[in-house]
Each structure stands twice: as C-alpha cells, then as structure tokens.
C-alpha cells in the first residue's frame, strides 16, 4: 500500500514526459505526427486497440509517408540498430520533436528519460516480452495487406534500451525496386498496462543480399511454449508454427489474427516460437517438411540450406511412412507440403527422449541447429 502511495507521489512530482514507445526513424510513416495532427492522440507512440482496420493499420499514418530517399537499411547477416523511445525527443531525431531534446545525458540508452520503466510497460528486465520487425516484399505500401508481413527479426529483451539491435537473417533476398515495406510490432507484458498493440510502418531495404530464395508465405503463430503464470507448465513443441510467421494483430475491431485474452497476450518470444534474433527459417527452402502443427503432431524437418541442397536426414527412412495424423487445419496450403511427411514419433522413442516433447522452457531462447535437426526445440 505504502509503495503504491509512494509511486503515485513520485509520479505526480516528475514532469510528465510521455509514455508507451515507438520505433523512430525518418523512414517511418508518421514521423512528424503530433498529438494535434489527428482529432485524437495518434502519435507514433500511442497504443492501438479497439479500432477499425483503417484506424489501426499502419497506425493510420499512410497519409504521412517518409521523405523520398529515407529508407531503413537491413544488412543481410548483420544487426540493424533501431531507436525505440517513448518520445521523439529522446532519440537522435529530437530536432523535429515538439518538445525538443529530452535525451538522458547520463544514459543514452534511456527509452523514456525521467520516467520509470512502467512508462514503457515493463516492471523490469524479467518482465520483457519482446518485439519484432516484419517485412513485406512489396514496394507499394497501399498494396500491403496484414497477411503480407513476415517477422524476420525479434529482440526478446525489447523494450529496454533505446538502441535496440535486430539481427537480419543472412539469407534475406533483395527487395523489389524502390525497396520493401517493414513494420515494428510490439505487445507488452500484461503486468504493466492493459492490452495494446504497437505498430510503426517504415520503408526498408535489404542490402548485401546473397540469396534469392524468397520468404515463404507467413502463417499465424501458434501458442506452444510454457506459460506458468496461466497454469501451463509444459511446452508443446509440435504445436508451434515453424517457418515464416505473421505478426500479431490483436484486440482491434477488425482483421485480428489473435484472440487471446487480456492476461495471456500473444508475445514475440519462444512462447510463440519467435526465437531471439534473426528468424533464419522463414525461406521457401528452409524446411524439408512442416507437418500440420498440433500438440501430438510430428516435428518438422529442417533443410540443410548451407549445402544449398536439402541433404537426407540421418533418421532411418526405411521406417514405414505414416500419414500425418494431425487434425489441425493450419498449414494445409503449406509451401512445403509436397516434401515428404513422416511421423517422427518413432525417432523420439528410439532416442529414448520421447518425453522431450514436454520439457519445461527456460527464459533463454532456443536456437535452430541444423546439425541436430531432430531437435528443433533445443534449450540451453
Ligand atoms: C519532419 O519535420 C522536419 C522539421 O520540420 C522536416 O525537415 C522533415 O522534412 C519532416 N519530415 C517529413 C517526413 O514530413
Ligand atoms: C529530467 O530530470 C533532470 C534531473 O532531475 C532534469 O535536470 C531535467 O530537466 C529533466 N528533463 C526533463 C525533460 O524534464
Ligand atoms: C537486443 O537489443 C539489445 C540492445 O541493443 C542487444 O544488446 C541484444 O544483443 C539484442 N538481441 C539480439 C538477439 O539481437
Ligand atoms: C536497395 O539495396 C540495393 C542493394 O544495395 C540497391 O541496389 C538498391 O538501390 C536499394 N534500393 C533502394 C530503394 O534504396
Ligand atoms: C496449441 O496452439 C493453439 C493455437 O495457438 C492453442 O490454442 C493451444 O492452447 C496450444 N496447445 C498447447 C498444448 O500448447
Ligand atoms: C532401418 O529400419 C529397418 C526396419 O525397422 C531395419 O530393418 C534396418 O536395419 C534399419 N536400418 C538402420 C540403418 O538402422
């Protein structure tokens, strides 16, 4: 109780800077939108919820495009550093901010100077749920549909530092002429604020590309990690969506793809198989097979793309070929569905690790490992 009174008191004496957070860059749509531009507060940092499609899509900033030539570069195989802050004045772009420079001189990484971390919806380092960058291989923003976006990079410790690195997958193919369309997506922890989406669209371009394999058609991410706070102590790896995944569209009035409740928001981390860093398995040649996900389905088989050619698995392929027994309706239009499918339950039995399908998940992210392809759900 006294802690609440104290924090309320502190809050009232601190200058009211701002709250929430946005991705800031001159390549973004809505770069100069202030709280006066719209009849309602539609600054890029304002959260999105309970809105019709026209109002939430691209934050309703499509009429506020970046200046010609302003583009956010995505160097294939390297990190791209974004600036995420609760106010434009806390970023390198303070000069065009209504409040001027409010950067923290003592801590350039401060997301929200003179505010507690609750202003950007986290109670601390262990209460971060991650954020994502998604890409659409289209150069016309008006042609981009929600289903066109694929998440290509995740930072699970976002939003915590103003300068946030997003690893760009090494195999990102080049963008069409004029570049691609990207967007920042974030849904914060339920412990520090209500249900909200964040979306900031921007123009982007892949540089240093060395691959021409396209990004696969993205699919809705399924909930498959443990969630002890909601009574789910075990993971269900075979229930995950593998490969290219669509961002979360949640809690709006139209075109949602997620329907989770207030206290179990969809999040960009292992709980939805969004591994930390580059999403290296989003390409059309990333998998030999992706069975329809379900808690008891077969696991997918990663392709060895380093060999440029799928190499045969080390599993005993003379085992009888079981039909996929999954009843899930997802993935039926899979780009991979013509690759061979095999019930791999025998593989786990053989290895004596059948129970691995129900392991506890740690906070640390898994990694894809082509040399241990039978264990997509590696944890260390
Ligand atoms: C944003 O405002 C600054 C300062 O007025 C201006 O130089 C810049 O061109 C504007 N950018 C856009 C995209 O409107
Ligand atoms: C933030 O706090 C510092 C020290 O308390 C103060 O000097 C500074 O003016 C404040 N900045 C803003 C933007 O209010
Ligand atoms: C997330 O961003 C932080 C801050 O820039 C960085 O230290 C960290 O390495 C990034 N995580 C990944 C997986 O790139
Ligand atoms: C995108 O990057 C490629 C490779 O560096 C370059 O050739 C192309 O001109 C860039 N496109 C834009 C719109 O910047
Ligand atoms: C499997 O995924 C679905 C869709 O996200 C979810 O509703 C269900 O709870 C998940 N089941 C398990 C056991 O993880
Ligand atoms: C593969 O499985 C078949 C049938 O179960 C068995 O006869 C054969 O010896 C196995 N081969 C290898 C290399 O394990």
Describe the model:
This protein is mostly beta strands and 380 residues long. It has one domain (18-380). Helices cover 6% and strands 14% of the residues. The chain contains three helices and eleven strands, in the order αβαββββββββββα. The protein has helices at 2-13, 53-56, 345-350, and strands spanning 22-24, 72-75, 79-85, 131-136, 150-155, 163-167, 180-186, 198-207, 277-278, 287-289, 301-302. The strands form three sheets. It has a six-stranded mixed sheet with strand order 2-8-7-4-5-9, with no helix packed on it. It has a three-stranded antiparallel sheet with strand order 1-3-6, with no helix packed on it. The longest helix has 12 residues, at 2-13. The chain is globular. The two termini are 39 Å apart. 42% of the residues are buried. One 2-acetamido-2-deoxy-beta-D-glucopyranose is lined by residues 31-32, 66-67, 96.
